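Sharing a chain and its predicted structure for anyone who wants a worked example. Both blocks are below, sequence first, tokens second.
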Amino acid sequence: DSLSHIEISPDGSRALATLNKSNEVLWLKVEAGGELSILARAQAGEGPYAARFFPDGRRAAVASIWTDDVRILEFPGDRIEVVERLAVGRIPEGIEISPDGTRLAVSCLEGTNLTDSS
């Protein structure tokens, strides 16, 4: 599945993992001893890569490197819902969210290290 990123929620009780080759994200429960259990799996674009939680912990952003977008996810209960899709530059590999959750920055490679045939 090619695990690309794991992001721990602000309260430490949940985690989000991106699976680049299977185009999925995992919503995980973090157990007291640090073990992880899968609560849900969901499609998240093609090539989900970087992930970041918003400060409230109820939402996250996931960058998909093959669809050049960022998906905003919400977690009602033990489910994952994609609530918004934002087109960004080519090959988004990094995300940062402002401390107040009002701004989202995305780092895109824009074809760096790719040949014209890529």
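Comments welcome. The mean pLDDT is 91.
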